[in-house]
Specification:
The protein is α/β, with parallel strands linked by helices. It contains 22 helices and 18 strands. A 6-stranded parallel beta sheet has the order 2-1-3-4-6-5, sandwiched between helices.
Length: 557
């Protein structure tokens, strides 16, 4: 058999469904082996997009997504998506080609040290200099990528190794391991800390954005009266219409939801990593008592120094805490008033419609056409903050955003992967014009795959997020504006449908029409970002509200 055949058989053994990538001449043996495989090769128009798709597949399934590129420029193009997976905790295997090890007739053409280049953005990476190590290397790669905390791994397959003839060999069997449970004494101490606290509050994060954790956390909150707040990447773990939800942290400043942490004498974190939300925002004085519950120990940070850690399967830890906390309730009316105030401040839509719509209106209009389990993906821009703060999420992994690497250009790729994993759900990408144009060529890929998805393109003809920061820092408005194509015509040029939101139609009606059309539909929507000034100042729930002197809020942002 050929070594590349063995390589692909090993991928099959791991349950790989898709390989996303841009082939090169150094990959041709692997491509031929894939042709005879049940694995679907998804050829994208840019390697970065392939890695973003593979990372999102990993995020949604828990199984490593696989992306492929050639050597040199193909590998460096792949690298942003590899870093996206690594920082975001998404399991991913990147496969890159390389020149022949034994008889390289092309000298240094396109030759860089890809393994050393990828080392800082992977959990593990290696070059396969011997076909005999293919089975164990692939088994090791998947095991490392999917182990807690998940992340990226990389294998380099030189073309002469891939093409050589070898004795028939079997892949190593995929072994799914159960995550270990936390130590009983550690769990006992955690329960005692919670029992002794006056007002604990839970902060859940990307590492907790999983179905079983949703079930156990919701049950624990109902049994104890504990309130829970999500980070941006944790949105949806507790449904935002659940009475114990305190919604999500949207901005890197003191926001309404942070008032709950101000009230708390114990902060219980679930799956929290400082990469996705700075603890300095909610623990500025470094005086919070923190209970860290996670699959892995906490990374030391000046503002995040847990008093106790419970390490093991998070859902089982929550299940084990439940009987230990039986009969204990946290029903402080101050927290109920805080919940009601935030719900009104962040989730009551604008009563007055304007055109172009403001971000608050866009959030409300998107929510009105999406079901509880439908999925939105957010590219990176100022709109991401508005959606993180104000978009009600009702199920885990239904709001896909990246607040770790926070790379522009990932929104379209994420929604494409989401549709492939969940073909029965509505999916929508919300992209700015800056981020969308970074990988817009993969509209063709979405059309070719026959996907049904909607892209809401929020157009301000500028790098709006940086422009907002520029103004906030007192700099002149400079260097942020650009021109755009006619996006309706642009979408049609790729074989997609283009629609336009104007002052003559309602955005929700345009979006509903987009889903009725089917296929890939891009909606061009101008946006009024004048409301961004509301994000410049910290927000707190007034003491008069917490004490019961005032029962409601009129603030809508």
């Amino acid at each position: 058999m050929k070594a590349s055949d063995l390589f692909v058989k090993c991928l099959e053994e791991e349950g790989v469904e898709y390989v996303f990538g841009v082939p090169g001449e150094e990959n041709l043996d692997v491509i031929e082996s894939l042709r005879a495989s049940h694995i679907q090769l998804v050829v994208t128009r840019h390697e970065q997009h392939a890695a973003f798709m593979a990372a999102t597949y990993g995020r949604l399934t828990g199984r490593a997504g696989v992306c492929l590129s050639t050597l040199g420029p193909g590998a460096t193009n792949l690298m942003t998506g590899v870093a996206y997976a690594q920082l975001g905790g998404m399991p991913l295997l990147a496969i890159t080609g390389q020149k022949a090890l034994r008889d390289n007739r092309q000298g240094k053409f396109q030759l860089i040290d890809v393994v050393d280049t990828f080392r800082p953005v992977t959990k593990w990476n290696s070059s396969l200099a011997d076909s005999g190590v293919i089975p164990r290397s692939i088994r090791h790669a998947f095991k490392v990528a999917e182990a807690e905390r998940p992340g990226a791994v990389h294998l380099e397959l030189p073309e002469d190794i891939a093409g050589e003839s070898i004795e028939p060999t079997q892949p190593q069997k995929r072994l799914t391991l159960r995550r270990p449970n936390a130590d009983e004494q550690a769990t006992d101490r955690a329960a005692e800390m919670i029992r002794q606290a006056r007002q604990p509050v839970i902060v859940y994060s990307a590492g907790a954005n999983r179905k079983r954790i949703t079930e156990q956390l919701t049950a624990l909150c109902e049994e104890t009266g504990l309130y829970a707040i999500g980070t941006q990447m944790g949105k949806g773990v507790v449904a935002d219409d659940h009475p114990q939800s305190l919604f999500a942290m949207g901005i890197h400043k003191h926001d309404y939801v942070h008032t709950a942490i101000d009230e708390a004498d114990l902060v219980i974190t679930l799956g929290y990593d400082v990469v996705e939300y700075p603890p300095s925002v909610w623990n500025e004085s470094k005086d919070k008592t923190i209970l860290h519950i996670d699959f892995v120990p906490a990374d030391p940070d000046e503002y995040y120094s847990p008093a106790h850690e419970v390490i093991g399967d998070i859902s089982n830890t929550l299940k084990a805490l439940s009987p230990r906390l039986q009969g204990k309730r946290f029903d402080d009316p101050r927290m109920k008033r805080l919940h009601d105030y935030i719900a009104e401040a962040l989730h009551v839509s604008e009563s007055e419609y304007s055109y172009p719509p403001r971000p608050q209106r866009v959030v409300q209009q998107v929510r009105s056409v999406m079901g509880r389990d439908d999925i939105i993906s957010l590219d990176n821009g100022i709109y991401k903050i508005w959606f993180a703060r104000m978009y009600p999420a009702y199920s885990n992994n239904t709001v896909l955003l990246d607040n770790a690497l926070a790379s522009m250009g990932a929104g379209l790729a994420a929604v494409m992967a989401a549709k492939m994993v969940h073909p029965d759900r509505r999916v929508m990408a919300i992209c700015g014009d800056g981020g969308f144009m970074m990988n817009s060529q993969d509209l063709e890929t979405a059309v070719r795959l026959g996907l049904d998805l909607v892209i809401l393109l929020l157009r301000d003809d500028a790098y709006g997020f940086i422009r907002w920061k520029q103004a906030g820092d007192g700099f002149a408005d400079f260097g942020m504006r650009f021109g755009n194509p006619d996006f309706v015509d642009y979408a049609r040029a790729y074989g997609a449908t283009g629609l336009r939101h104007t002052d003559e139609n309602n955005l929700s009606e345009v979006l509903e029409h987009a889903y009725e059309k089917g296929g890939v539909v891009l909606v061009d929507c101008p946006i009024d970002y004048s409301a961004n000034t509301l994000l410049d100042e910290p927000h707190s729930v007034p003491e008069r509200v917490l004490s019961g002197e005032a029962e409601s809020s009129s603030d809508s942002a």
